Amino acid sequence: MFIIPNCTPPPIFGIEQVSSAKLLGVYIQENFSCDIHFKHIITVSSQRLHILKALKRQGLSLELLHCVFHAIIVNKIMFAISASRVLQINSLFKRAFKYGYVKSVIKLEELLLDYDDKLFTKATQGNHAMHHLLPSPKSTCYNLQTLGHGLSINQIKSELHKNTFINRLIFDDCY
What we know:
single chain; 175 residues; 6 helices; 5% strand; flat
């Protein structure tokens, strides 16, 4: 295992050196770990469960509690999420179901798949910023039933390239 030595740059007069910083709502640490960001998300989400508790005591219906839960907790979790913390996030979702704030137990894996599908569908439209990343539509001289997304599939040689967002969804929805 290769260990990078601590190579902190020399201090610059008037600029404070920090071990982490918040940029666009995401905490970035000097070692690019996501621990501080994840702890912040779980702390804020747990605090927001108390808001739902107060709303439930005020008589808000399950339908509206579910909507508020998605608005103030799920959206916070889904922004810049680290997939390595699936178990802890799912336990927060189970707790919300146990307290009666959502209609059913939400699973992070299903949310991620749903968000991927929605983004891919939007990207296949010509006016989306990611449209230029998609492969060209496949063309055949046969009049066949259209299945899947209708895009040509190129040969992928490396696992890293296969697991990129676009390729993962192209191969997932090709049949």
